[in-house]
Every structure is written in structure tokens, then in C-alpha cells.
Amino acid sequence: MTKPEAQKAKGRCLCGAVSFEVANAFEKLFLCSCDHCRQITGSAFASNLFVDAREFDWLAGTEEIVRFQVTGRDISKSFCRICGSGVPWPNGDGTKMIVPAGALSGPVNTAERMRIFASEQPEWASGLEHIPTYATFPKTEG
User: Fold this and answer.
1) Concatenated DSSP letters for 14-61?
2) Based on C-alpha coordinates, what's the Rg of the chain?
3) Which three-class secondary structure state does DSSP give residue 132?
4) Average pLDDT per block of 10 residues along the chain, 142 residues long
5) pTM for this one?
């Protein structure tokens, strides 16, 4: 009996120049608050999904991808040279693709989710579940 093919998830950069598809069966979702991930994303944490590289395909725009490698670490940032959006990149040995979760459209199926390097999370990112939330940009006075 053959294994059923996993449903595909599609993703792209903001401007659409770079696009890809991947099996929507991710091994892990890491929300990483380490110093490097915060700097490389400009946010409280990076949201990266890990999948077997054989389950990943570029659809368009690989010539528009720029990659920055942190010296001495297996930490990279790949992005579209046109719009600057983060796009997937291979891990150090090329066996996995690391997919920025925000680059995907639609729901994501992941086996395991975890927050890592939480000890490096900035104080301003603590307790976010207690602040007001809005469906859109809030109206302001003035």
C-alpha cells in the first residue's frame, strides 16, 4: 500500500516574485526568541517551520533570493531582493528546508510546536495575551 501524498501548502514573498510549494506536513514549528532570530526578523521571535527538503519545490523567483549566513552558526536569513520578505532556506546539511511560517498562505499542519530560547525573550514581549486585541488597525483620536 502506498503512502498518500501530503497536501501541498503554497507560499510566496510579499511582492510575489518568489513562490514555492511544500508538503503541508511540517515536522516542527519553532518560535525562537534567541538574540540572532530577534535581530534577523526585527520581532520578538522567528516563526520557522521545518520540513524534509525532498518535500519542497520552488515555483518561481529563485534568482531574486539573497541569503545572509551568520558566521560560525547554522543561522541564515533568505529574502526576496525586491521586497525584502523572508523566504525559505536549507539547513546546514541541506536535509531540511526552514520555512518562515508567515510566508505561507492557509492553515499549517505541524507535528510539534515549541518556543525556544524563551530566556532571551525581551520583556516587552511578555504577557501579550493580556493586551487588547483588534481585528484591524484601531481607530485613534487626534
Assistant:
1) TTSSSEEEEES-EEEEEEE-SHHHHHHHTSS-EEEEEEEGGGEEEEE-
2) 17
3) coil
4) 68 97 93 86 90 96 93 84 95 92 92 89 82 85 68
5) 0.84
